[in-house]
Amino acid sequence: MATLRKEIPVANAATPVWHAIRDFGQVHTKVAPGFLTGLKMDNGDRIVTFFNGVVARTANSLDPASRTLLVEIQVPNPDGKLMPGTYAQVDLNLPRKDPPLLIPSDTLVVRPSGTLVALVDANNTVHFQNITVGRDLGERIEVLSGLKEGQRVIVNPNDSVQEGVKVHPVSGK
User: What is the structure's pLDDT at 143?
Assistant: First the structure.
């Protein structure tokens, strides 16, 4: 599944949310009624609320100037937590034949030699691996090559993380 994220203003709390979702490549052809979506709203006090919704319909036409697609997402709001004028982040989970590997964006190490990630091998030893990145999705980055699913990466590697150093990994979950 590919996830597209876009900050959107919430319309009227009693009506479905309408907003133009920015086109990411050719994905717009796959946005169709029935796709499940997720909505994340941050009230500014570090309280994050999650909502589930469904794509109800689309405009079926891209705006050629902005490359956006108008999408209606119906989100149940029985408690009135989605307020008019607030912003939410929408995730459109779209099926892909060959989905890319996604890693947290704060795992990247950018050096003159290229873009790297710090891996931890089976012996808990650090190894820096060159990777080729694809799209930047905000909190996550697509990895096109250089990394395999299941490999362990170090989040926020600092200067003390060096090639060949033994580490004591902890789960980020």
Answer: 93
CATH classification number, 2-94, choose in 2.40.30.170, 3.40.50.11890, 2.40.50.100, 3.40.640.10: 2.40.30.170
d(CA 97, CA 141): 18
Q: Report the CATH architecture of 101-153.
A: Beta Barrel (2.40)
User: Domain residue spans in the chain?
Assistant: 2-94, 101-153
pLDDT tens, position by position, 7-57: 444 444 444 444 444 433 433 345 677 777 777 777 666 667 788 888 888
Alpha-carbon gap, residue 79 to 88, rounded angstroms: 16
pLDDT digits (tens, 9 = 90+) for 73-122: 888 888 877 777 777 777 776 667 777 889 999 999 988 989 999 999 99
Mean pLDDT within 116-144 = 91
Paired tokens of 34: 């029935």
CB 154 within 8 A of CB 168: no
